[in-house]
Amino acid sequence: MVGGSTSLTAPLLSHPFIAAQQPRVIVLYSHLLPLNARLDARIDQMVDDGLADEVYHLYELEQKLLVGPDSARGVWKSIGYSELRDWVAITHRGKGSAVKHPRADERWNEGVEEMKIATRRYAGLQLLWLWKELVPALQRMEVDFRMLKVTTGKKFGKEVISPAIEQCHDWVKGEVGKLSPMDEGAVAVQPKTLLAV
What is the average pLDDT across 1-26? Predict the structure, then answer.
């Protein structure tokens, strides 16, 4: 199982059919401060890769399908669109064309910064959920799980991929894993400090 859906993971793992399969779980976690820098860099890359075009397309779809956005549902509430909607609303003139508005650059920069803040906040909430909900649920369900800390992209192979493959080999062979359920780094994470952005 791969994913990070906070609303589906624990119910899925506790489903009688899944529980009967004796699932093994590898949980990836990170400390929030280094994660924040990676999240910001990812958003900068999205901007470079054409985020503005995606926002324009969504805005055109919104105008075609809705009188106004239902910000409580679907893509209209996704991080990015809601933060950049004001920008596209003042620059959009239909069929992918744009007009220069005096506040366009300012609104774009504000929207991208709001997107970064919202993304960091969401990551903090996911980490909080992981520590307060998922880990205790896995322990209550007596699911065999291991936690691996993600530090940097450069170390991902050594710190995550290799240990995860080794753990999976051990599980397939029926051996008890060599990894502890929570390493020293996992214990050091304090859930109450996760929401600092």
Answer: 76
